[in-house]
């Protein structure tokens, strides 16, 4: 996601043509979740536009289409997978990881299917898997079986931290909507690879979002000291200040790990003048 109505004219210039929107987002953050690819595989021309708007070290975590993960549940997917991999090829090194988000019904009995799917994937990409079945969080045998399959494929397990969001009842309309849609996920903080990916959702109250991410400051700083290169995505139900909050999280981590590079400077919303 790199466009949001509430950002226009406040965090990014408005109006912006479609081929400039990602470039302005990339002035705030150096990574993005590619959610739109879940609903439809983009054209190569569209993906080439994304590449032109970003530097080679910008990170895309691109979600596999739902026809692969949810409809066919990783079986008989050769054609849609081929089309997807061909479409994202223009990203080159920007495709930091291909994100395999699995439905809540995808449980321990399906781990073998996941293993076969990962084994068939090209080694030219990194892969990150997000699971939502409760057994992968409260059953030690299921956890070990999944970790074994992911480790064999050098794939990461993506935690989706919703614990701060579900800590108390919703107070805004976006929170109430998210309350019925977001999964209540147990906390997971372990990393399997040198490129961990975390998804975190706080509250529309920025202070509560910051309070809820404090544990991740220590975890991410620790990963960096170990030589890992984590990617952290910060969300709120309304996402009004998500880029600002992401930069604040980065600054909080950088206060612990000063050698961490700063984020880029945002493109000014209004032209700079001398007066």
UniProtKB/TrEMBL annotation:
<dbReference type="InterPro" id="IPR036520">
    <property type="entry name" value="UPF0759_sf"/>
</dbReference>
<protein>
    <recommendedName>
        <fullName>DUF72 domain-containing protein</fullName>
    </recommendedName>
</protein>
<dbReference type="Pfam" id="PF01904">
    <property type="entry name" value="DUF72"/>
</dbReference>
<dbReference type="InterPro" id="IPR002763">
    <property type="entry name" value="DUF72"/>
</dbReference>
